[in-house]
Amino acid sequence: MSIAVANARLEARISTNLHATLKRAAEIQGRTMTDFVISAVQDAAQRAIEESELVRLSLSDQACFAQALLSPPRPAPALKRAFARRRKLVSAE
Questions:
Q1: DSSP notation for 14-38
Q2: Does residue 90 share a domain with residue 70?
Q3: Would you say residue 48 lies in a domain?
Q4: What per-residue confidence (pLDDT) applies to 1?
Q5: Quick one: 66 and 87 in the same domain?
Q6: Domain assignment of residue 21, yes or no
Q7: What residue numbers bound the domain in which 84 lies?
Q8: pLDDT tens digits for 35-59?
Q9: How many domains would you assign to the chain?
Q10: 43, 52 in Cβ contact below 8 A?
Q11: Could you give the angle at which helices 16-28 and 33-53 cross, rounded to 10 degrees?
Q12: In sequence order, what DSSP letters do the residues of 34-70 get, joined into one string?
């Protein structure tokens, strides 16, 4: 069974200084410039995704969050009414 590999092309116009820097960095690591750029872009993309999905809290915010989970406040009257309305709507279907 053969596996088809899809390839997409990415092109970018960069300054000659940046090109020289990338080429030098790739040579230092013993890689082709393409391999170096792909690896760097993958790392940057993964970091960007992780940072957007990660919530960082200060120690005091962590304690406040944990306390809210362990001892949640009583539901407000408006919340109770909203749940009652929802119950009516769902049971009516």
A1: --HHHHHHHHHHHHHTT--HHHHHH
A2: yes
A3: yes
A4: 57
A5: yes
A6: yes
A7: 60-93
A8: 999 999 999 999 999 999 998 999 9
A9: 2
A10: no
A11: 100
A12: HHHHHHHHHHHHHHHHHHHH-----HHHHHHHHHHHH
pLDDT of residue 2: 58
First to last CA, the chain: 50
Cβ-contact 18, 33 below 8 angstroms: no
Assess if residue 9 is contained within a domain.
no
pLDDT score, position 3: 65
Indicate the SS3 state at residue 80: helix
Cα–Cα nearest to 40, from 18, 61, 64, 62: 18
Under-50 pLDDT residues of the chain: none
Domain presence at residue 6: no
Tell me, yes or no, whether 66 and 49 share the same domain.
no
| Identity of the residue numbered 24 | R
